[in-house]
Amino acid sequence: MQHESTATSMISVRGMSKLFGDFVALDRLNFDVKKGEKIVILGPSGSGKSTLIRTLNRIEPHDSGTLTINGKLITDKTDPIQLRCMVGMVFQNYNLFPHLSVLENCILAPMRVRGMTRIEATDLARRYLNQVGIPDQADKYPIQLSGGQQQRVAIARALCMQPEVMLFDEPTAALDPEAIVGVVSIIDELAEQGITTVCVTHEMAFSRRIADHIIFMDQGKILEITPPETFFTSPQTGRAQNFLNQMLRY
Amino acid sequence: MPRFFLHQPRMPWFQRIAVIVGLFFVALGQMGTARAEELPSFVHNGTLTICTNPTLPPMTFVKGQDVTHPEGFDIDVAHFLATRWHAQLSVITMDFTGLFPSLGAQRCSLVMSGIIQTPSREKSFDAVPYQDTALVVAGRANTPALTSMDELSGKDVAVESGTSYVTRLGIINNALVAAGKAPMVIQQYPTEEQVVQQVLIGRVFAFVSQDVEIFFRMRQLQGKLHILLTPDIPDYRHFAIYLRQNKQDQALLQTAITALETDGTLATLRNKWSITDQSTKNSVNTSSATSIFDWNAFFSALTSTAFLHGALITLAVALLSHIIAITLSVPIAIALNNPKRSVLKIALEGYVALFRAAPTLLQLLFIWNAVPQFFPIFREQWFTPFLATVLALSINESAYQVEINRSALSAVDPGQELGASALGLSRRDIYWRVIFPQAFRIALPPTINEFINLLKTTSLASVISLQELLAVTQIQVARTFAFTEYYAAALVYYLVMVFFFLFLQKRVERRFTWSDRKKVVSNAA
Ligand SMILES: Nc1ncnc2c1ncn2[C@@H]1O[C@H](COP(=O)(O)OP(=O)(O)OP(=O)(O)O)[C@@H](O)[C@H]1O
Ligand SMILES: [Mg+2]
């Protein structure tokens, strides 16, 4: 199954499309993400950012074109569980399991999917809870935590699977400004450690700081793939220009 | 289950010896003839099964605490018939209205329940008379006697439902109306003791029954009743045993009854059960109807094995049915929550709609009386009233439980499934570790509610002869006439059971600390 991918590419997308009925949500996308690279996806609401990021761990299967992750061609026959061990994801609304404590949230998948013992998984979970700065909340239930704390748990939970790629879908969109700073700094730190990152966000300063490339989308198409300096100073398309004007107004 | 070998009723030693000696000679006499004599086709595998509604003393009634062991004239006659045919006797007790459907469904060989021989019944079943009787109208002791049925014009009259009295009173009513008089107001009750009670409490003016029963009641109630009128209605002169139509069987049964009459067995039994004794002196049963509330009767009912047994059956039926219903309903709910249309989904929707719409009582009667006509396997011995009730209630309850589970499952945030699958959890783990625990919390209170309803719904199963708590209560009331005390005892049992499960619900809910703060963790895209 090893073909059509450059050795250094962690993610390779070629002519990938996604339809919802007749509606073209993703239209023949092409891009590559190198190992360790940070990509930020920008674009107006409804442009297909979430859809794109979900095709990367096959929560939404794509309809045509090819997707290669870490040298593996991803098709109907790919074991989705194996893929998701490799690609972690963090959602805007955390999606923590409310009936499980913070620690149980973190150790469930390592135990059930990776087959770790409870002791191994707990060790790992404590390490990542420590890394995201909430080592003392392990025994609380999600409902007892603030939004920022919940998003940190969600990040730690994804990291416990020790993925090669982390996907973030607007991780700070539901948070208040103070909590945003904390969560952003955690993602900054992760990026520095060299994990391949694809992030959808509206945090412009953050994008500029961490992104190796900006992917700008509109109406299911990729309009620009550029380094952030270029994108923020001299966007090539009118729509990107428009988008930036609107974003900066706030 | 109400199947048993009949045991010999208690009697004085000299009578006992006389009966045993008599039996010996009867048996001797039959050795020669019975071998040659053909067995009726309704005796299967050496078993004679009779259906009876044990609320008509002295013909068929429950004398002691054990409701599965009715006694009476009919039961003794059945015993002698079984002996004659070298068969074991099995007695099934049920509501009166269930008797003929059960005979039709081949659940029993014979119906022996103090039933009058009437031409209308003989259109569907064959009958063999075995005891002379007369229709009588009875009322409270201080009511003046009547001279003709016409005097009942405009009065309230109680009868047992499903009996031929209902039709007969209808005919008299037609005559009354034709003569320009007001008709009687006929009230129907499912059991005979309720009929009598209506007269005792003064709700109705009179009730209609057979002389033998009224003699018994007069003794039992120590002169609170008396006979108002014995109209000579030709249709009401004989009690008969009913069988499915078969001329040869009818002839064999007739021969057997004639033999019992000739050798004096029936005469002995008539004497034993005081069939024609009108005296009110030697009351066998002490009636509790004298005081307002007899605490002794109440406590003895409360602590009786009959009530405990009835309550356990009620509990077992409800628990088993609900467990099966929940097991059925979870996959159905998951299938129905799938947004895609499919043939399976339409079929399941039909299933849920049908069993939510049909009355539970109808479903019980259908499974017990109608289904065996299409699938003979359901009339075999293993298909007991207990199993039939569990079957009917499981199906019925699963339809309701599907709705509870559906709404519980869709109340779980779709983001949960998303989050779980992004972590690589298998479908199985997503359901068992993530969705079910949350849906369980949501479904728990309405499910316990359903269970409490189900616990009470089991009382319907008395119509198919299940000896659950309420059926036991009614049979015991027929014996003692202690309405208030026995109803109160039954109420205590229901309350204890229901409160136990409410307590359990509270305990289980307390374990869901994670849902303590009512903060919504909503998660869509
Ligand atoms: N399951 C679905 N079925 C049908 N249409 C969908 C589905 N999911 C997304 N879409 C449509 O696809 C388009 C892209 O949606 P997507 O959620 O990817 O946008 P987005 O760029 O993430 O927007 P936002 O910034 O508001 O999150 C939208 O028009 C949306 O209505
Ligand atoms: Mg989105």
TrEMBL record, chain B:
One of its GO terms (molecular function) is transmembrane transporter activity. Belongs to the binding-protein-dependent transport system permease family. HisMQ subfamily. NCBIfam families: HEQRo_perm_3TM. The chain crosses the membrane at residues 306-336, 348-368, 486-504. GO terms for cellular component: ATP-binding cassette (ABC) transporter complex. It is found in: Cell inner membrane; Cell membrane. SUPFAM superfamilies: MetI-like, Periplasmic binding protein-like II. The keyword Cell membrane applies. Residues 311-504 form the ABC transmembrane type-1 domain. GO terms for biological process: amino acid transport. Keywords: Amino-acid transport, Cell membrane, Membrane, Transmembrane, Transmembrane helix, Transport. It comes from the Bacteria. CDD domains: TM_PBP2. This is Transporter. SMART domains: PBPb. It is a multi-pass membrane protein. It comes from Acetobacter pomorum. The keyword Transmembrane helix applies. It holds the Pfam family BPD_transp_1. InterPro entries: AA_ABC_transptr_permease_3TM, ArtM/GltK/GlnP/TcyL/YhdX-like, MetI-like, MetI-like_sf, Solute-binding_3/MltF_N.
